[in-house]
Amino acid sequence: MIFKRVGDGRPYPDHGTTLSMWAELAPRPVRLDELVTVKRTLDLETLLATDSTFFGDLFPHVVEWKGEYYLEDGLHRALRAALQQRPVIHARVLLLD
């Protein structure tokens, strides 16, 4: 199993965090098997693209809510890490109360 589970949508409340606010969070290691995805599908073309992070944040965005880690942005990067047999990714983690 790559992820803890595959979710369908964001179960946590809207946090309104902007890209510049995400950028202020220092990346930290997160285990892939602790992540719950918020997307059920992925685009294979995006997964295989060499420049998929060219216009976005280099680090995935994870929301910690009620003791769970939700992968909000960066599913393709996390899956690429899993395919390279890396059990951990560096992500920006936002803690919601």
From TrEMBL:
<protein>
    <submittedName>
        <fullName>Type II toxin-antitoxin system VapB family antitoxin</fullName>
    </submittedName>
</protein>
<dbReference type="Pfam" id="PF23719">
    <property type="entry name" value="VapB"/>
</dbReference>
<dbReference type="InterPro" id="IPR014447">
    <property type="entry name" value="VapB-like_prob"/>
</dbReference>
